[in-house]
């Protein structure tokens, strides 16, 4: 049984992820961490009955009251960095989905996880769709080169970071410059990414749209089911490939 502490559970993504995880037999959200929601009951927050599991103001107080082994974060960059460091120092494994962390922040968390010999994944997208899209993008790159490839992303207008973590990830994976990214903020759009080859006489696109955030929860569930004892991963595709190779 994996015992989880989750930060960001009142947010758009955290709530959807928690709703997937609470249906699993082999894991339990034992506490949450929240900025303005300390004291709330997690079961009631997720639309069910009280489960006597609560939101705490910070990681140390959540860990004082519960015996957890995994920390999950869908919050904001500063909070993710601070909370992940605290959780790693307490010996927890870590799953960070929050985007917009600096390279230095990511490396600081990764270094700590290695020192503590814990598992961690810090990845901008936990959907299988984006993992598959990297592979398809690499085929486009192989056939057409990078010159005329664009990455188009569309997200809801409340999204804080721009471009999205996923667009930056795709750009790096395809070895393109940041100029290749076109980012749009559109009301109601959950998450849309496209890799587009556009030339004078031809267009070819691969696109992926998330219409329900539970897909990210399915990705997190896959990680929890297959989590090794240690090792740090920076993207979901590398994790999937590592796990599937061992099967
Ligand atoms: N890796 C992935 O697959 C995905 C990553 N994301 C990322 O997850 C993050 C959250 O996105 P949304 O759910 O749309 O945001 P949101 O604004 O709906 O929710 C953010 C949550 O974090 C909490 N929070 C904010 N600052 C905090 C702090 N200082 N301390 C504790 N809690 C704090 C808020 O109370 C809220 O519960 C973003 O960085 C987004 O890019 C989103 C979807 C998928
Ligand atoms: O904020 C979001 O909504 C999303 N954020 C992630 C990102 O920045 O790429 C993942 C997904 O696109 C949804």
From TrEMBL:
Keywords: Amino-acid biosynthesis, Diaminopimelate biosynthesis, Lysine biosynthesis, NAD, NADP, Oxidoreductase
Name of the featured protein: 4-hydroxy-tetrahydrodipicolinate reductase
Gene3D superfamilies reported for this sequence: Dihydrodipicolinate Reductase, domain 2, NAD(P)-binding Rossmann-like Domain
GO annotation (BP), single: diaminopimelate biosynthetic process
Sequence ranges assigned to domain Dihydrodipicolinate reductase C-terminal in this UniProt record: 129-231
Source species of the chain: Compostibacillus humi
Signal peptide: none
Gene Ontology MF terms in the entry: 4-hydroxy-tetrahydrodipicolinate reductase
E.C. numbers: 1.17.1.8
Chain ranges of the Dihydrodipicolinate reductase N-terminal domain: 3-126
Pfam family, one: DapB_C
Reactions the enzyme catalyzes: (S)-2,3,4,5-tetrahydrodipicolinate + NAD(+) + H2O = (2S,4S)-4-hydroxy-2,3,4,5-tetrahydrodipicolinate + NADH + H(+); (S)-2,3,4,5-tetrahydrodipicolinate + NADP(+) + H2O = (2S,4S)-4-hydroxy-2,3,4,5-tetrahydrodipicolinate + NADPH + H(+)
Pathway assignment: Amino-acid biosynthesis; L-lysine biosynthesis via DAP pathway; (S)-tetrahydrodipicolinate from L-aspartate: step 4/4
NCBIfam families according to UniProt: dapB
Family indicated by similarity: Belongs to the DapB family.
InterPro entries xref list: DapB_C (IPR022663), DapB_N (IPR000846), DHDPR_bac (IPR023940), NAD(P)-bd_dom_sf (IPR036291)
